């Protein structure tokens, strides 16, 4: 019997069982109630309320402008739509770096005000104090290494990370440190597939990849990207499972012409 069928509700423990039994973990983003409802019904294991809402929902160029209040709003909308999946909420830029007290109060606000099940933080050993403080309060933490979009101005580019040996070694050290600190899972973004497999093999906790090959324990994509709602973004790791850009454009165009030509509403559609 697959773990997928076995767990009525996905928990951090369930994800670790999936890794142990070799069942891959599916994770997608969602930012609102309706999409969360659809994603959860389709059987996704983890719903990430990503700070990518800054790009997808608000039209910002980076994830940096989104605030804690914005994230709580999106997360509470998602939680109301989810029945089975584990809901993980990104802690936005500036709410945990450098001050572990602030990190804890930010995480507590997310959990209390949104009803989310866990938080996700970007970074390795430099944010361990914040992670440990949040974990001591009983809040589950998912880590995130590799390409960390909140550090875009430090990197200066969205290219593949950890290709050089020194950066690859630091990434492995950071991954082990995050596991030791008590993180229940880890996201690896845009790193060589061989390195991602090495990290996944070295850790007991699940490793979820985005642009990190198949040798990890699960995959995550941004929902709007995989549904083909955004054609300006074409990384190699993205597979489009639908072309909603065209579907929505055609539906709206059809509606506009029906209104203009008095084809909508008909007598049957009137009271």
Account of the 3D structure:
- The chain is built from twelve helices and eight strands.
- With 271 residues, it is an alpha/beta fold.
- It has a single domain, classed as Phosphoenolpyruvate-binding domains (TIM Barrel), CATH 3.20.20.
- The protein has an eight-stranded parallel β-barrel, surrounded by seven helices.
- Helix 5 packs parallel to helix 6 and helix 6 crosses helix 7.
- The mean pLDDT is 95.
Just give the CATH class. Answer: Alpha Beta
Indicate the overall shape: globular
Order of helices and strands: HHEHEHHEHEHEHHEHEEHH
Tell me the β content. 5-15%
What strand order characterises the main sheet? 1-2-3-4-5-6-7-8
Query: How many strand units?
Result: 8
CA distance, first residue to last residue = 52 Å
Task: Report low-confidence residues grouped into runs of 5 or more.
Answer: none
Structural classification? alpha/beta
CATH topology title = TIM Barrel
Tally of individual domains: 1
| Largest sheet: number of strands, sense, barrel closure | 8 strands, parallel, barrel
CATH architecture term: Alpha-Beta Barrel
Helix % is: 40-55%
Radius of gyration, CA atoms, in whole angstroms: 20 Å
* Alpha plus pi helix count: 12
CATH superfamily: Phosphoenolpyruvate-binding domains
Averaged pLDDT, please? Answer: 95
